[in-house]
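User: Can you predict the 3D structure of Cytochrome P450? Sequence below.
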Amino acid sequence: MPQHPALIVLDPAARDADAEHELLRAQGPAARIDILGVEAWSVSDPVLLKQLLTSPEVSKDGRRHWPGFDEAVRTWPLALWVAATNMFTAYGGDHRRLRRTVAPAFSARRVAAMRPTVEGIVEQLLDALEATPDGEVTDLRDRLAYPLPIAVIGRLLGVPDDRGNEFRSLVNDVFSTTLTPEEAAANAEQLYAMLDALIAAKRADPGEDMASVLIALGEEDADGRGLAEEELRDTFLLMINAGYETTVNLIDQAVTRLLTDPEQLAHVREGRASWTDVVEETLRHSPPVKHLPLRFAVTDIELPDGRTIAKGEAILASYAAANRHPGWHRDPHAFDVTRITKEHLAFGHGIHFCLGAALARMEAEIALEAFFDRFPDAALAPGEGDTGPVASLISNGHRSVPVRLRPRRD
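Assistant: Sure. Here are the predicted structure tokens for Cytochrome P450:
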């Protein structure tokens, strides 16, 4: 068997992601791919992926473990995904230190304490939707899925409400895989300028928010546990990115799946499934992130089929393809909220498991239950908007979710 079979070039716009994921799975546990000009191994077998995500032989630190790092930082549109200095790109002791510092922001107690805030934001958004005339189409991605996580992460970090839309536009482009390297660099520069302004504002007038707490840790901790300035800024970047786009897509996909298949919604309304079941099956079937760049082999890693990921080669965690692996779930392409086993990798696995998973789940459950209670006759409006996939190898959502909240009354 050849060491490097022909590369599968991933479509930057992800126009037919399901077919692409099928192609990846057909290559075995891992496939050689090209992601925007960078060669890597896409891992779509869930057993292998779990092993790699928990192995010390796999690193997130491109500076230390990827020979292509310097070139990627200069020319790769996704450079920010490997160049940021935070726990997302850290390895070993650095990762443990950074995660330990940020973890209190997402403790079970803090997440539970945010429930009334999330419920209040959802009610405000639904009140605004209530004014939509009967029969008129509205975009739920724009009016519910987007503003909820923006407001929640804004409250957590103390971002002023009037800055939310600015962050939204810039974060969208972090997840875009159709920008040129120059466009991506310009977007990163603008995003960092906003983060610098937020940090300066919090230093001048600290509050009870997590941003102020993290800034204080960096300034007061003398034993090396705090955050250096670059780590502080990139930690804010991570919290905004991870707390925003993923929750948008989770709500988007859940609403779309339930309205596409009313039988699934009936299971919830008639007590055969819960809103937790809806969220978990959405995370399995249509995870918010399709592929997550990048990891790197610290040493040669032999694959189950005899091939080898060589030391220094890049690894792409292909979560969406793994979640629907035929060896993991029965009838994996079916969306079934009554499915008994809904295990998935939507939030990762192992030491890099998403700290914000509980918060994202809570936001989605509250939003979905409240929306379908308020608008029991809601229906998709095919042909009334661009419902195609967002142009991204990373983000897994729709460009819009056009819905009629109530039928037109004659």
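The radius of gyration is 21 Å. The CA atoms of residues 209 and 240 lie 14 Å apart.
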